[in-house]
Amino acid sequence: MTDSSNGAEESSSGSRRGFGMRATPKGTDDEQDSAAEESAAEESAAAEGDDDVLSPDARVDLTEVRREAGVDDVLAVLDRELVGLAPVKARIAELSALLLVDRTRSRFGIAVPQPNLHMCFTGSPGTGKTTVALRMADLLRQLGYLRRGHLVTVTRDDLVGQYVGHTAPKTKEVVKRAMGGVLFIDEAYYLYREDNERDYGQESIEILLQVMESNRDDLVVILAGYADRMNDFFRANPGMSSRIAHHITFPDFSVPELEEIGLLMAEELGYRFSDEARETLSEYLKRRVEQPWFAGARSVRNAVERARLRQARRLLEQDDPKVGRDELMTFERADLKGSRVFSGGARAVADEGPQSAEDHAEGSLD
Amino acid sequence: MRITQGTFSYLPDFTDDEISAQIQYCIDQDWPLSVEFTDDPHPRNTYWEMWGLPMFDLKDAAGVLMEVNACRKAQPDHYIKLNAYDATLGRQTTMLSFIVQRPQHEPGFRLDRQEVSDRRIRYTAHSYATERPVGERYARS
To answer: A255-361: which CATH topology?
Structure first.
């Protein structure tokens, strides 16, 4: 008795406190939380809280709505920080347009159903699938589609159990953790194993399907993987394909785009390229793209990392031991020229033996 | 007789939105939540059945509410409560516990007096519901 009566006594004060803060009309609570952080959400709360519906013949200025929602800022940041990826940006622009239209519709009292936002990202390695997924979570929160906007990244291991009855709780737990945010399933095609029909992956897929249908406004599922294997996956699971509204293909980066990515990455690390080094970078990328184990932006990142190593060694070994801020921050031509890509490329590397094979596994032919 | 155990039990039953708001409060405080159910709501019965494991690392109330609804579906005539536990050092205790479902008909308790030596009296709270076997106690007839 003591236990529960204590609880009851404490609770009466606790509940009053709790209610003082929480005694809001239903549904506004989540909006309050996000509103504190984000003005866009605030707008939506205000719009929804507004009881007076516009008359059917009223006119609404969409540019005004657009400015209020702050959608343009979000899109501008995206455009600045992600190089290329035109189809992705186009889809995000469409989503934000839909948000604005939906918001305006609700002001006229028209029903606003939650759109289906589940996505599938396909593309070669290093085309930015994971990076975009990270951004997407944050973006969808800013646009007001998600309540929390966190990203839960999982692979087959996190979803599929090891024995009968293990899979369902495991998948459900992951789903619960992802509620209010994005569930990002990397290499999703591993969930389905064609050669083993008793594989537990199927059970996991069924639970995901059910959640994608019934908890549409609670979480967004993003599948990612290489295009050909994802196609096989969807062929085997047509239900999954039809529940995903957005199939986005990530195009391979062109050499100028890769160069721009390289410059951005170096800038983030506090480096810059000298004019000569920039030319060398472009030349390097042109050669690197042709060679095996090229992994898009990931290869660029590795190239920048190797250049850092070479630059450090060059600075230590140079005749004049005094260095200034500029030298410490600048990549010279030699830092990139040292790469094996310039000295014979793939074949030379392949001949070098097991040591270099290890390098390949890391996708770092640099 | 309406059972008043745990927080909020003197208030009208919460709607799902109100429950969600409470859950979100707990999550924001970093308290993991767990769902428990029983058909023996004797005040001294502190060990209710666990509906799955406590839920850690959640960010949003929807996940917990999903489990509450799953439990409601499986145990429509049981009491269901939500517990929120504070694991920080120095606390390590249940911070919030409230009933989220109760059976339609609650027969309540009877006070038994047992006369023992020297005219002393021992008291027992007897739950009418426990007169029927487990699983049938609150079944709708």
So the answer is: Helicase, Ruva Protein; domain 3 (1.10.8)
Q: Where in chain A is the domain with CATH 1.10.8.60?
A: 255-361
Say whether domain A55-250 belongs to CATH 3.40.50.300.
yes
pLDDT tens for each residue of B40-74: 999 889 899 999 999 999 999 999 999 999 999 99
Measured in angstroms, the CA of B48 and the nearest CA of chain A are apart by 13
Q: Is residue B117 in some structural domain? A: no
A14 close to B (CB below 8 A): yes
Comparing C-alpha atoms, which of A120, A80, A123 is closest to residue A251?
A: A123
Give yes or no for A33 touching B (CB within 8 A).
Answer: yes
Pairing relationship of beta strands A182-185 and A151-154 according to DSSP bridges: parallel
Angle at which helix A167-178 crosses helix A201-214, to 10 degrees, equals: 40
Please give the Cα distance from A342 to A339 (Å, whole number). Answer: 6
What pLDDT, on a 0 to 100 scale, did the predictor assign at position A51?
A: 58
What chain B residue is nearest to A21 in terms of C-alpha separation? Answer: B25
Domain containing residue B74: 16-106
Euclidean distance between CA atoms A249 and A361, whole angstroms: 25
Residue A8 to residue B7, Cβ atoms within 8 A = yes
Question: A263-283 burial string, b = 16+ CB within 10 Å, else e?
Answer: bbbbeeeebebeeebbebbbb
Confirm whether B141 is domain-assigned. no
Residue A344: band (very low, low, confident or very high) from pLDDT cuts 50, 70, 90 = low
Report the gap between the CA of B61 and the closest CA in chain A (Å).
8
More confident residue, B70 or A349: B70
Identity of the residue in B7, B63, B64 whose CB atom sits nearest the CB atom of A15: B7
pTM for this prediction: 0.75
What is the CATH number for B44? 3.30.190.10
Tens digits of residue pLDDT in A4-53:
444 444 444 433 343 334 434 444 444 444 444 444 444 444 444 445 67
Q: For tokens 């953790």, name the residue.
A: A177
Residue B135 lies in a domain: no
- Indicate if the pLDDT at residue A174 is higher than 90: yes
Are B66 and A215 within 8 A, CB to CB?
yes
- At A142, list the tokens: 């800013």
Instruction: Kindly determine whether residue A148 and residue B64, on different chains, have CB atoms separated by under 8 Å.
Output: no
